[in-house]
Amino acid sequence: MLRAWYIEDGALRPLAEGSDLSRADWIDLSAPSEDERAAVGALGLDAPTLEDMEEIEISNRLYRQDGCEVMTVTIPGRNADDRRIAAPVAFVLSERRMMTVRYHAPRAFETFDRHAPSTSAGCISHLHLFLGLFEEIVARLADLLEGDGQALDRASQTLFDGNDPETHVLEQLVREIGRRGESVASLRHALLTLDRALTTFGLWRDERSLRPLLKATTRDIQALIVHADFLSARVAQLTGVTLGLVNLDQTEAGRVLSVGAVIFLPPTLVASIYGMNFGVLPGTGHPLGWLMASGLMVVSVIASILYFRWKGWL
């Protein structure tokens, strides 16, 4: 899908379908077709393929080609199945316009055309649109990090509110904390790619009017990276505490079973003795011999329980 906008009166205006693309200041390609690639190619813009964008080498993510600057970053968004994924997005800057290429749906791309005039960069040129879109993306990542932090707060309250959570609650917490840990790691990776792209952009475009905007967005990104590191530490701590409580529950269950087994060893011994096929055993010929043997078994159980309580094992 191809969408395009142009700057007019300090705002972004959508370019009608079929209009001349040369008027566009921002072209957004979502899973582009061959015809759409050809349309932007006529403007001197080469849309990278998904395979090119998935390369992890820095030289394949940040480079200049045919008078254009190409920067590929990783951003979370929704795929065709409406599942959240982190996938690459390419920014292609020419002297006249900005083009973005993506194969998923980051939320910032759905809202930026409305929010562009209110960003710090505003709608002045395609370079200001680039910085404004980065600002929108960073704000979205901050919201996602905030959501992960709140989920970790709820998990912490469940663990440390003074009540012993049940085993099935602990199992749910382990999964929830693990999911949040994966989310924080993904967001941190996205922030690192944004930081690298902005640093490279600053080296390529040393324009005085862009410096304050560039520095402000870079500071925001670096602050969020520090916050992501803090959340990662919380994930590690809460995971350790949760697994420790699970181990304590399992140890307690094993202790109870072990004590129960030991308590019933003496009566089992008595029953085994009286089950032997010897002709002479104490009480075998007495009418109340069975009662004596049963009483001995009960006494052995009571004696074992009292001994374990005295030792503090019960």
Task: Briefly say what this structure is.
By secondary structure, this protein is of the alpha+beta class. The protein has helices spanning 34-41, 50-53, 58-61, 107-115, 126-160, 167-204, 211-263, 265-274, 289-311; strands at residues 2-8, 11-14, 26-30, 62-65, 68-78, 84-93, 98-102.
Structural description of this entry:
This protein has 314 residues and is an alpha+beta fold. The protein has nine helices and seven strands; from the N terminus they run βββαααββββαααααα. A hairpin with a 4-residue loop joins strand 6 and strand 7. The longest helix has 53 residues.
* Strand order across the largest sheet: 2-1-3-7-6-5-4
Strand content: 5-15%
Number of helices: 9
- What is the typical, i.e. mean, pLDDT? 87
Q: Major β-sheet, in short?
A: 7 strands, mixed
What CATH calls the topology of the largest domain is Beta Polymerase, domain 2
The shape, in one word, is rod-shaped
Let me know the number of strands: 7
Looking at CATH, the homologous superfamily of the largest domain is CorA soluble domain-like
Number of domains: 2
In the CATH classification, which architecture of the largest domain applies?
A: 2-Layer Sandwich
What is the string of SSEs from the N terminus onward?
Answer: EEEHHHEEEEHHHHHH
CATH class (first level) name of the largest domain: Alpha Beta
Helix content range:
55-70%
Structural class: alpha+beta
Uncertain ranges: none
The rounded Rg comes to 34 Å
